[in-house]
Amino acid sequence: MINSDTYSFFNERLSRWLLLFCLVAVGIGQSFIFTSLPPIGREIGLADVRISTLITAGAATFVVAAFLWGGIINRIGRVRSVIIGMSCYALTIALTGFVLQEALAKNLSAEQTYYWVFALRIVFSLGIAGVLPSIQTFLIAHTDIKHRSSTIAMIGASFSIGMILGPAFASLLSSLGLTAPFYIIAFLAGCAALFVVLFVKDKKHVRQFERPPAINWFKEPVMPFLGMSTLAILSVTGIQQIMGFLIQDRFQLDVAQTTHQLGFAMMTMSCFSILVQMILVPRFQLGVVTLIFSGVVMGVLAQLAFILLDSYVGILFAMGLFGAGFGFLFPGIVTAQTLLVKDDQQSRLASMNASMQGLGAALGPVILASLYQLGQLVPFLGLMFALLFMLGVFVYCKSKLKHVF
């Protein structure tokens, strides 16, 4: 017979992996739309600008909704929040596929399709914004402090894996039909929600029926680290935005060649980030100080490589360094945040952090693309000084909060 301790350990492990699988699914849902929506939108007669607004509207909604989910998670529970978010994800993605299918069949006009998809993207973002904070709060509550950085690293790695798989899924599944990826990915999200219903139990959550006091985040010691989250995500999305410009301009390539070379560069960055977060951070149980210092140093070296190395191999080297740096920096920043608030504030912190990351993701492409217009090397110089400034802020905070880190 299986004793209660063995069963409890097995249940904890199963819950952990199911929730990480949800994060992979969320990453797929966030990224596959970039591959699937543009060609379908053009096919049904939507202008490129209108297609872009569909993605932008979802991103803006995510920023606002993530901020609001913290109180909801406290009231209804972490597991219920994940179930609601994943169910909303599955339903809205499937309905989006159906609407686009009807548009391709000429049963809906381009104008009608635009408004239907716009509404569905809003609802999708409202639901999905609660998944990451819920999972982060659950896993932190079920992990001791010594292993917290490893847990945060696994969260980042799972989402990154999903972001890589999303475009790949869209490309492979589109051979079954233009809207096939929507239905299959919706089925994947629905299965994830069902598994959470059946197998994930949260015995450590205490529901808050009374509205907790408001938090003035600007007066909290965690605020500088929330700013660091924004800057870290801003740097990643910004680099992704300008890398195609850099490769095309530096090597005088056509569009097809640029797309091919860009794919390898993006894959290099993602693989190194996942490698660090899934293997190195858990294996060596690195602390906040080591993680942030390592991340900043590698990030600065990456910017120097972008500036000084003119070859394509140099760009791959720089992207690998940058990915590894982010792999250290992300879990370091988020782990530091979780150490600076009380247990009953973790869900609101996770929601605030998700919102700040969403803000960084929205601002990164705009800011770095604008800097690129000033000069090919300006974005990299800007990021280098931003990373050094981040390190200076961390050193200052560490001196004030010595007992925490």
Percentage of β-strand residues: under 5%
- Assign the structural class, choosing from mainly alpha, mainly beta, alpha/beta, alpha+beta, or little secondary structure: mainly alpha
Broad shape: globular
Kindly report how far apart the N and C termini lie: 43 Å
Total count of strands: 0
Instruction: Name the average pLDDT.
Output: 87
Largest sheet: none
Q: Provide the helix percentage.
A: over 70%
Instruction: Pick out the low-confidence regions.
Output: none
Integer-rounded radius of gyration: 21 Å
One letter per element, helices H and strands E, the order comes to HHHHHHHHHHHHH
**Total count of helical runs of at least 4 residues:** 13
Sum up the structure in keywords.
MFS_dom, MFS_trans_sf, mainly alpha, membrane, 405 residues, single chain, 13 helices
Could you provide a short overview of the structure?
Residues 15-400 form the Major facilitator superfamily (MFS) profile domain. By secondary structure, the chain is mostly helical.
Textual characterization of the structure:
Keywords: Membrane, Transmembrane, Transmembrane helix. Residues 15-400 form the Major facilitator superfamily (MFS) profile domain. This is MFS transporter. The chain crosses the membrane at residues 17-37, 49-70, 82-101, 113-140, 152-174, 180-200, 221-242, 262-281, 288-309, 315-341, 353-372, 378-397. It holds the Pfam family MFS_1. The protein is mainly alpha-helical. Helices cover 82% and strands 0% of the residues. The protein contains 13 helices and no strands. The chain has helices at 4-43, 48-76, 78-104, 110-128, 131-141, 148-173, 180-199, 223-251, 255-284, 288-308, 312-339, 346-374, 378-400. The N and C termini lie far apart (43 Å).
